[in-house]
Design goal:
mainly alpha
Length: 92
């Protein structure tokens, strides 16, 4: 394995791991108000662009990383949509 590929895999693993604590916390607490929907949507779009780039350049570490981050971002979006019910008027 080339040193470039080794560091590509290390970076991909570490970058992917950053989403796991947030997903676990959101799952356990069901609290997602402080997670920015815009941030999650931008993560999906940015990683979709990385996925396309990585596919075109045959960069396997980046393909894996971008794919996993897209999946985890979608999981967070689902958590937000399920956990943030709009309050009914007059019921405070």
């Amino acid at each position: 394995m080339l040193i470039e590929e080794f560091f590509g895999w290390v970076a991909s693993i570490l970058t992917t791991l950053i989403f796991i604590p947030q997903i676990v916390k959101a799952y356990k607490t069901r609290l997602t108000n402080d997670i920015s929907m815009l941030m999650i949507v931008l993560a999906v779009l940015g990683n979709l662009a990385w996925l396309i780039h990585a596919s075109l350049t045959d960069n396997m570490p980046l393909i894996v990383c971008a794919s996993l981050i897209i999946i985890m971002s979608i999981v967070l979006i689902i958590f937000k949509l399920n956990n943030e019910k709009p309050s009914k008027p007059g019921l405070s």
